[in-house]
Design a protein that fits this description.
Layout (H helix, E strand, L loop, with lengths): L2 E5 L3 H13 L3 E5 L2 H11 L3 E4 L8 H11 L5 E5 L4 H9 L4 E4 L4 H17 L4 E4 L2 E4 L4 E4 L2 E3 L3 H12 L7 H7 L10 H16 L7 E4 L3 E4 L6
Parallel strand pairs: 1-2, 1-3, 3-4, 4-5
Antiparallel strand pairs: 6-7, 7-8, 8-9, 10-11
Bound molecules: calcium ion (CA).
Calcium ion (CA) binds next to loops.
C-alpha cells in the first residue's frame, strides 16, 4: 500500500484528502505544518508527498528545498491555491514532480499520484554499492571488498532497507514495520538494536571505514561520510 504524506494546514482540505486517499487504498499521514512534515518524513519514509505552499511558519517552497537535500527521488506533488506561473516554475525548479491548483478534481489528483509512484518504482534497483560494500538483492549476496558476508534473512532485510534509504536515517519504527511487519516499534527496539549490532559487526568490524551509523534519537543510517 503506497504511503502518502500530506503537508497541509487547512484541516478541511486535509480531511478530504485523507478520506479520499484511504478509499483508494493509500495509507495517509497528515502534517499541518512544513516542519511537522519534515519530521514525519524522517520517521515514516512515505512513498510520495502532497505539499501545500501557503503554510504557517516556513513556506512550502522552502520546505521543498530542504526536503530535496535528503530525498532526491521522493515524488512530490504541490497542491496549492497559488496559480501564478512564477510559483509553478519555482516549484518545479526546486524539484516538485507535479503541480496542481486548488480547487482540484480528486480523481485527477489520484491519477497523478499513481503516475508519480509508477515512475518512482521503475527506478527499482536490485543491486547497491557503497564504498567497498555491495549487495545483490536477487542472489542475496553481500560483499565487503572481496570478502563474502553471510547474513541472516533479517540482517539482510535491514541492510537492504538501509541501502534503499542511503545516507538518510532509518527509524526503528520503520525497521519494525518493513522488516518485522509490525506497526509498533517500542517493544521491538531492543531486538532491532541487537540485529543491527550483529549486522554492523559483520559489515564493519574488519574495515577502517564504518558504514552503519547510529543517529542518536533517529535510528540508523548507511553512509560513507563521517557524521558531525
Ligand atoms: Ca494552506
Amino acid at each position: 500500500m503506497p504511503r502518502i504524506l500530506i503537508i497541509e494546514d487547512e484541516p478541511k482540505v486535509a480531511e478530504f484528502l485523507q478520506l479520499g486517499l484511504r478509499e483508494v487504498e493509500f495509507e495517509v499521514q497528515w502534517a499541518a505544518s512544513g516542519e511537522d512534515g519534515l519530521t514525519c518524513l524522517l520517521e515514516n519514509q512515505p512513498d510520495a508527498v502532497v505539499l501545500d505552499l501557503n503554510l504557517p511558519g516556513r513556506d512550502g517552497l522552502d520546505i521543498l528545498s530542504t526536503l530535496r537535500k535528503h530525498h532526491e527521488q521522493l515524488p512530490v506533488l504541490i497542491l496549492s491555491a497559488r496559480d501564478a506561473v512564477d510559483d509553478r516554475v519555482t516549484g518545479l525548479e526546486l524539484g516538485a514532480d507535479d503541480y496542481m491548483i486548488k480547487p482540484f478534481a480528486f480523481p485527477e489528483l489520484v491519477a497523478r499520484l499513481k503516475v508519480m509512484l509508477r515512475r518512482e518504482n521503475q527506478g527499482n534497483v536490485y543491486a547497491f554499492e557503497l564504498a567497498d560494500l555491495s549487495i545483490d538483492i536477487i542472489s542475496r549476496q553481500v560483499k565487503r571488498g572481496s570478502k563474502s558476508i553471510n547474513l541472516t534473512p533479517r540482517e539482510f532485510e535491514i541492510l537492504e532497507l538501509l541501502f534503499r534509504n542511503l545516507k538518510r536515517p532509518v527509524s526503528r519504527k520503520t525497521i519494525a514495520r518493513d522488516v518485522w511487519k509490525v506497526e509498533r516499534a517500542t517493544p521491538l527496539d531492543n531486538v532491532i538494536d541487537v540485529h543491527v549490532m550483529r549486522l554492523r559487526k559483520k559489515i564493519d568490524e574488519d574495515s577502517e571505514l564504518k558504514l552503519i551509523q547510529t543517529i542518536r534519537g533517529l535510528g540508523f543510517m548507511l553512509s560513507d561520510e563521517e557524521q558531525e
